[in-house]
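Key result, reporting period 2: structure in, sequence out.
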């Protein structure tokens, strides 16, 4: 495996481990507690990550099987590198909120084992990434399922996944620190 692939997998595994340590002990009440009605709970943050990542799985499966080819727009979009860098940088700084799509919006209440589900999802994601080791990550370009004009190569796409996961991890940590968070298990 190349160095970039190893670093990517290491980051995904690190996020999964940190999620287990930080949130894995929360009961259903605490995992679903919200600081405000319009805010997300810890559980919703992780449910959203699972839903969002899975939206890319069909394209990754096609890449893995060799049946996927870049579209004309993906080959010639002048914005491919721009979108990848912009999204990665923006998520790293938490500088703006993004409205998510209906398909990636988590339900109001999530199952109490959502952190375990997230950990299993991360294992699945790592396996999928390993299976793409031989793909050309710079020349393979994917279109965002959220904004059809946004394209990015696989390298940038996976960096966006990492930063997106970190962003919602930080959001979940803020929920733990919010006034009124139930401090003990019932």
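The corresponding designed sequence is given below.
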């Amino acid at each position: 495996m190349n160095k970039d692939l190893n670093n990517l997998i290491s980051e995904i595994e690190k996020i999964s481990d940190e999620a287990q340590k930080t949130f894995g002990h929360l009961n259903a009440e605490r995992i679903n507690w919200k600081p405000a009605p319009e805010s997300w709970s810890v559980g919703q943050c992780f449910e959203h990550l699972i839903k969002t990542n899975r939206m890319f799985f069909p394209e990754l499966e096609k890449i893995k099987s060799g049946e996927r080819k870049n579209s004309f727009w993906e080959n010639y979009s002048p914005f491919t590198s721009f979108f990848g860098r912009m999204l990665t940088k923006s998520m790293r700084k938490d500088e703006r909120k993004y409205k998510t799509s209906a398909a990636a919006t988590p339900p109001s209440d999530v199952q109490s084992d959502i952190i375990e589900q997230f950990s299993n999802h991360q294992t699945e994601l790592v396996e999928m990434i390993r299976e793409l080791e031989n793909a050309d990550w710079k020349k393979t370009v994917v279109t965002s399922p959220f904004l059809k004009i946004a394209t990015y190569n696989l390298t940038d796409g996976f960096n966006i996944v990492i930063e997106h996961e970190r962003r919602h991890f930080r959001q979940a940590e803020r929920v733990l620190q919010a006034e009124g968070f139930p401090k003990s298990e019932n």
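Residues 154-177 form the longest helix (24 residues). Residues 73 and 151 are 8 Å apart (CA to CA). This case is discussed further under Risks and Mitigation.
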